[in-house]
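ARCHIVE CARD
CATEGORY: sequence design from structure
SOURCE FIELD: tokenized fold
FIELD CONTENT:
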């Protein structure tokens, strides 16, 4: 689905809510920082107050941290691993995740797969 379709769907739902949190997004899937900025700007214009952005692979942790630092009042991060991506995790994935969570105690686990 194209980004414009996601924008339309999101804006459609936002118009019917007084206060809305998008509870599960993967903004880091957009490789273009300008496009992410436009999506977030449109969402805020339409009344979206918070977005819970969930990393589902270890390689997305750093990108999500970057987005949180760039949009701290809008993005609530969730970190974790989706079972589909377990083949790509490093031997240090637990240590990396714990370090992120210890350094940022208001962050959360957004995906969980018990190993």
């Amino acid at each position: 689905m194209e980004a414009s379709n996601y924008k339309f769907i999101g804006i459609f739902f936002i118009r019917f809510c007084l206060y809305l949190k998008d509870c599960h997004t993967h903004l880091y899937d957009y490789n273009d920082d300008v496009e992410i900025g436009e999506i977030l700007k449109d969402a805020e214009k339409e009344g979206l107050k918070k977005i819970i952005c969930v990393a589902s692979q270890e390689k997305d942790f750093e990108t999500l941290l970057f987005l949180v630092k760039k949009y701290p009042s809008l993005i609530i991060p969730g970190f974790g691993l989706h079972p589909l991506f377990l083949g790509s995790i490093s031997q240090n994935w637990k240590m990396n995740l714990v370090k992120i969570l210890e350094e940022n105690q208001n962050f959360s686990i957004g995906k969980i797969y018990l190993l």
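CARD ANNOTATION: Residues 1-18 have pLDDT under 50 and may be disordered. Residues 26 and 53 are 6 Å apart (CA to CA).
SHELF: design records, drawer C
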